[in-house]
Write a structure and sequence with these properties.
It is built from 12 helices and 10 strands. Strands 1-2-3-5-7-10 form a 6-stranded mixed beta sheet, sandwiched between helices. The protein is globular. 47% of the residues lie in helices and 16% in strands. The relative contact order is 0.11. The protein has 2 domains: 192 residues, 2-enoyl-CoA Hydratase, Chain A, domain 1, CATH 3.90.226.10; 47 residues, Orthogonal Bundle (Lyase 2-enoyl-coa Hydratase, Chain  A, domain 2), CATH 1.10.12. It is α/β, with parallel strands linked by helices and 257 residues long. The two termini are 28 Å apart. The site of acetoacetyl-coenzyme A has 21 residues, from α2, β6 and α5.
């Protein structure tokens, strides 16, 4: 498939998606988000890919939704676009998504980052939800995922002032996993992606889903969900291989079956 606003490559079993509208700081227009989600879904189906990595460039992961597309449109026009339906499809991706972010990570950019399962940030990243400064509010999860991630008070401060926080502060609040020098953030994210890609793929996907359930379900329901996943994985070939390899003191060869 050919795209206008993203580029796509593969490194071993890691699928790499790069947002590519550098002149306007990777502002997320409708077409870019459509392309991104189409490629995420394609990679999710591609057996050659085990982990997906999303990145931008050093200056910007993404500076938010494209304001040009919103500025002149009426409320009804924007409602009819139903533009967030495509965002909702991101949370159905079963393979892990690693985010490698640098520079501006604002508005829809922050919401996209929060759709990633693990995030490596460059120390230059500025992360925030500035929608309030435009007279609006986030629409792709900014009030919901941010609050779950950093807690009510910090989310309230970020959303009501619109001011970004530094990568280091984001790390202190658990919003990103690791902060590394700008020269290293992409390599570090790729290294991590390759490490996860070596794990048994079925276990990776079941664990991903189960961890996300922890945000949605009451504890006992979450425990029940976890247990079903545990029993399911006991039926996999990779479980046999993983345990056999342990007993034989050798490295396992996981096939995803
Ligand atoms: N949409 C459209 N264009 C954008 C953009 C956006 N979100 N962010 C930056 N740009 C464009 C600028 O208009 C500018 O274009 P020109 O060169 O053609 O003038 C170019 O990118 C470079 O930007 P600046 O000159 O402003 O660069 P700067 O370094 O001075 O400032 C910035 C950088 C602080 C990120 C500033 O550009 C900015 O505040 N951008 C808007 C951020 C924002 O409000 N994002 C939220 C959008 S709403 C949203 O995301 C809703 C949602 O929940 C889905």
């Amino acid at each position: 498939m050919s795209y206008e606003f993203i580029t796509v490559s593969i490194d071993e079993t890691v699928g790499l998606i790069t947002l590519n509208r550098p002149k306007i700081l990777n502002a997320l227009n409708l077409q870019l988000v459509d392309e991104l989600v189409a490629e995420l879904e394609r990679m999710d189906r591609d057996p050659a890919i085990r982990v997906i990595l999303i990145t931008g460039n050093e200056q910007a992961f993404a500076a938010g939704a494209d304001i040009n597309e919103m500025a002149e449109a009426s409320a009804i026009e924007i409602m009819k676009r139903n533009q967030f339906a495509v965002w909702d499809r991101m949370s159905l991706i079963s393979k892990p998504i690693i985010g490698a972010v640098s520079g501006f990570v604002l508005g829809g950019g922050c919401e996209l980052m929060m759709n990633c399962d693990i995030v490596i940030a460059s120390e230059t990243a500025q992360i925030g939800q500035p929608e309030i400064k435009l007279g609006v509010m986030p629409g792709a999860g900014g009030t919901q995922r941010l609050t779950r991630a950093v807690g009510l008070r910090k989310a309230m401060e970020m959303l009501l002032t619109g001011d970004p926080i530094s990568a280091r502060e984001a790390w202190q609040y658990g919003l990103v996993n690791r902060v590394v020098p700008v020269e290293a953030y992409l390599q570090e994210a790729l290294k991590l992606a390759k490490k996860v890609a070596k794990q048994p793929p079925l276990a990776v996907q079941v664990i991903k889903k189960s961890v996300h359930k922890a945000e949605d379900l009451p504890l006992q329901e979450g425990m029940d969900y976890e247990r079903s996943g545990f029993y399911l994985l006991l039926a996999s070939e990779d479980r046999k291989e993983g345990m056999q390899a342990f007993l034989e003191k050798r490295k396992p060869r996981f096939t995803g079956n």
